[in-house]
Amino acid sequence: ALRITDECINCDVCEPECPNQAITLGQEIYEIDPDKCTECVGHFDEPQCVQLCPVSCIPVDPQHVESRETLWQKFQRLQAAT
Ligand code: SF4
Ligand code: SF4
């Protein structure tokens, strides 16, 4: 999963573009739910939020480093739940 750092300027651009609805506005800045972020695996070739973020504040979450296979399995779980 990816993570939004405190460099986020709350520009609102990423939230509507996330295919997994993993991004929400938290207490101060936008946040990513690691249980929902597949790094866009299953939907797009590149993470949409990273492509769009004007301040490049969305790195991989060091606490949620996942393989492509793991991300794919998460995608399939999320699809099954909808
Ligand atoms: Fe959503 Fe994709 Fe960004 Fe993860 S990488 S938060 S799934 S847009
Ligand atoms: Fe924050 Fe970047 Fe999302 Fe804008 S696109 S709300 S700066 S994380």
Automatic annotation (TrEMBL):
Pfam families documented for this protein: Fer4_7
Cellular component GO terms, alphabetical: cytoplasm
Record keyword DNA-binding present: no
Molecular function GO labels: 4 iron, 4 sulfur cluster binding; metal ion binding
Domain 4Fe-4S ferredoxin-type: 1-28, 30-63
Entry keyword 4Fe-4S: yes
Keywords tagged on the record: 4Fe-4S, Electron transport, Iron, Iron-sulfur, Metal-binding, Repeat, Transport
Protein name as it appears in the record: 4Fe-4S ferredoxin iron-sulfur binding domain protein
Organism: Acidovorax delafieldii 2AN
